[in-house]
Structures are given as C-alpha cells and as structure tokens.
Amino acid sequence: MKLLLWTLGALAGVVLAAGVTYAASSLSTQRIGISSEPVSAGQELAPKATASRTPTPTPKPKTRKKRTPTPTATPQPTASAIPTRAPTVDDNGGGSDRHGSGGSGGHGSDD
Q: Which end of the chain is more exposed for a tag (fewer CB within 10 A), N or C?
C-alpha cells in the first residue's frame, strides 16, 4: 500500500512539473508590447506634413553701453584668530586593557 502511494505521489509530481513548464513556456511565447504591432501602427499618431514656411528673422540683440565700474573701498585687514589645540580623543572603547583581551577594549572578545 505504501509503494502505491509513493508511486502516485511521484506521478503527481511529474505531472505538476510538466504543467508548470508548459504554462511558463506559453507565457514566454506571447507577443506583448510594441513588438506585436506592425511598423505602420504609429503612422496615425505622427503630425501631418505641412507646407514649409519661410523662417522668421531672429531679432538682433540691442547693444548696451558699457559702464565704467565705480571704485570700491579696499577692506582693512582684521585681526586673525588665535589658533587653539584640538582636544585629544580617547578611542580605546572606554574600557581599560586589564583583562588581557588583546587590545580589543573589552568588546566582542572570544574568551
């Protein structure tokens, strides 16, 4: 009885796999998008050709008089700031290295 159930299950699996394969192949052969349309399909969407017009002359830009720049006052130099030392940063993880963890600062050691 077990052998018959296993055989029926195996056959059902093969039939299911064949059905899925057939469905996938039928999806890939469908024509979709622009490729399914003939080349002349977009002819109606293009604007109709009109008689050529004579181009309108472009107006010439007006010439402007150049102004002479007005002299500006030269800024007086100001006193420079006094440089200060940057604070030192302790980046050892906040812990001391007393436990022999190999300098990892006590984070993530595999002791």
A: N
Q: Rounded to two decimals, what is the model's pTM?
A: 0.29
CA–CA dist 21, 16 (Å, integer) = 9
Q: Across the chain, which distance is largest between two alpha carbons, in Å?
A: 109
The pLDDT profile of the chain, 111 residues, written as one tens digit per residue, is: 899 999 999 999 999 999 999 998 888 777 666 666 667 767 777 777 776 666 677 777 777 777 777 777 777 777 677 777 777 777 776 655 555 555 555 555 565
Give start and end residues of each alpha helix (H) in 29-109: none
Other C-beta atoms within 10 Å of 104: how many? 14
